[in-house]
Input
Amino acid sequence: MGIMLLFVLVLATFLGFELITKVPSQLHTPLMSGSNAISGITIVGALISLLGTWNVQDDILRTVLGTCAVMFATINVVGGYLVTDRMLGMFTGGKK
Amino acid sequence: MPESLVNLLYIISSMIFVFGLKMLGKADTARKGNRISAIGMLLAIVTALASDNLIHWPWIVVGLAAGSVIGALAARLVAMTSMPELVALFNGLGGIASLLVGWVEFQRLYSAGALADTPWNDLVIIGVTVLIGGVTFTGSIIAWGKLSGKMSSRPILYGGQQVVNGFVVILILAAILLVSLGRPLLGPENLLPFLTPYTVLIVLGALSLILGVMVVIPIGGGDMPVVISLLNAYSGMAACAAGFVIKNNVLIVSGALVGSSGVILTNIMCKAMNRSLANVLFSGFGSGGGARQGAAFTGEAKPVSIEDAYPILEAAQNILIVPGYGMAVAQAQHAVQELASLLKENGAEVNFGIHPVAGRMPGHMNVLLAEANVPYDQLREMDDVNPTIEMVDVALVIGANDVVNPAARSDEGSPLYGMPVINVDKAHTVIVFKRSLNPGFAGVDNPLFFGENTRMLFGDARTSIQGLVTEFKG
Output
């Protein structure tokens, strides 16, 4: 299992390097904030930590940590995508 | 939902991220690419929610709702000039979320009494997730503080800094090792009863948070474009590590994509300054004291008034505007746009020369000028304007300093030597908008200000430019 995950990591890293080679400077900020929003994918991990059948009373710490993780990751995701969209909207606006 | 379907949907959302990111790197498709990537995120979230029992949904709803409201408000309300610090803040939140994902998994194993039976490599990965997440969080918070002016953007240096940092790193590695045992070091009756895996994990978290602070404080404001893109790469790596913790491919793939694109952007920024990443991270550039000063030069700055600058601009046929961080500070982008369009109406060719590291984040000037509705075919890159710069009648330097410093080309003793700059000194006339003759961020004197063809227009950039606009209208 572990070695398969490592395999995925290596391939995805190479893909990432190939994907973005020459970026025009006007896209540097949107690329940064857009990829920042993608790094909010950790929200999936946060959500999974709150799934399943276990007793909240038995493990209140897990509940609180998980809920905080979901909230922080959601800010990252929602804020990241919206602010990138707002920025890119200005770029196309200036084109007209 | 069956596990195979869950995994299939995760693969699809990973593919969507790949397409989205690819489109984000091209001007025509960037906005669509961002929206496509958002769809991938939504799919991943829905899939995660459908993958297991939702009995604790109220907690999930609380987290999602609070996060959505805060994130949406921040993204809508924050001014474009505050964009660098907002991006830094979002980045930090992603880091702390990854740290918590690692911790919550540790907590789950702990309360199930399964720590001692957990394979050591699983525990190492939890430790690594806490480390990267923690460094990303506090590093981004410090970057936010420096960018928003809540703390000084000067580098903070002290004797033995590298030794202290190295010591913290060694402690962190030792902590990860202890956590990986899953049980107290010398068995239940060990000599140091407080060294349980849980206390060590907490110490590890605290050390990681401290390390994040310590690695960013020695980096000055002018190097922030590099730091921000590096922290962005870290947040991807943190998500990637969290993916190993919960054995989830979509986290690993997306985290790795963000990590590698962040490294590429970091590299572009370093190249634009002709410095290595190590030099940016460790040299304390811009502290003044540490940097070797360039050769002394003589000359006198020639001030010019708005009334005298007007005829120069009025007669110019080819005008190049070079903005810098000072334009952002003075919030002068709208005034600059107004002046540029008046100059254009007057028959001149007007271009903007954008240096890759002008401002405090990658592409900072482009965002501000786009906000002010400057058409983006007027925004030219450095390599684009330099070859024809002798044809420029008037170069307007607005709040830029180090990125137009000719000493980077000519003076081997200058700390900026070797950095590619926009060669405005080769234009017929240069008008520099500046508050005073103070050296720029790097603490390096700028011979441009004393050049034969340079005129200094002292004062607040926005007020000066508005003055010129009034002259043109009157």
Observations:
- Residues 60-95 of chain A form the longest helix (36 residues).
- Chain A has one domain: 24-95.
- The mean pLDDT of chain A is 88.
- Chain A touches chain B through 82 residues (CB under 8 Å).
